[in-house]
Design goal:
Largest sheet: none
Structural class: mainly alpha
Number of helices: 13
Shape: globular
Order of helices and strands: HHHHHHHHHHHHH
Number of strands: 0
Helix content: over 70%
Radius of gyration: 21 Å
Strand content: under 5%
Length: 369
Amino acid sequence: MTAGPKPDRLVYIDSLRGVAALLVVLMHNIQPIATGPVRTLLYDIIDPGKVGVVMFFAISGFVIPFSFPKGPAPLARFVVSRLFRLYPAYWLSMVAWIAVAAIIGGAMPSVINVLANATMAQTLFGQANLVGVYWTLFIELVFYTLCAVAFALGLLHIGRFTFGACLFWLLVAVLFAVARFALERKVPVAVPLCLSIMFWGTLWREATINRSALHRRYALRVLALFAVAIPPISLLAYDFDTGLEEDWVRYMVSYYVAIGVFMLLSTRVRLTGRVAVWFGQISYSLYLFHVHTKLLVDEAVARAGLVLPAALQVALSIAAAVCVSYIVFTLVERPAIRMGKAVGGMIAARRSEEAGATGYPPIFKGPLS
């Protein structure tokens, strides 16, 4: 088992990540085989995978704006830490996906598609996600970019800015929902809506951790707006099916439940047990690789000519995903994170040396230092 988290780390947020990842994994394993009342629940009432994804976005808002390091070159070090945190495991998942496709006889992606996906911004290039779950990572990149710009401008921790960002992106989500309804096309409503939720997560942290009365008022106002806006956004955006068996009630309920569970687990019910925290540590790899392992388990069972009970096959798939994720975390994620910190330390040291040579403190070079 991995070493425990640092004493000053918000371990219950790690646990939240674990809960969110397990919800996504569970959904992708159960949804394809669901029948009867279970199918009705998952397709018409609530999507646990969507709940998990929205929780991930709220968690990012809770964490990312506060992850800019102190000292010299904070922006550069932030970018380096994010690159090393996200891309090594992500690139490995891409390679693994191509290998899985070859094993099961799936379609091979084009070179252009692979190159676009390697940037994690394939949406900007009009390219399909190599793996379906990659769609959320583009939204994360957008949020990181917005946070970096806000940090450089000195706005990131100003309550009015964060509140305004929540309102702006929520308004964009409404406009996109109207456009999707009018055009009956896949306008990306989830992008601005989730960005609004991410900035709300920042307000929620300031309110719950830093005990800011101002941020609490802002957070509660945005919550009220979510309560009012999410139903019409869901109705307008998902009143017709674009091939994913979409249902507006399921989207509405999923967003409500995700926000509610996030609030509960970040305040009154904080999970700090070793198992829950451990799942949080491997959550990124679990998110990236669980689809791969499901396909491989299904293929292995089929080639062996076995007919297993559905519950057993799901359990095997999830167990395999957890094992693979732990290996990836241990051999790829954790070393990459450490390397990112080392590179960031070198950048900080070099900037300090430059500042000493010129006689000016690092901050002299401005907020973009």
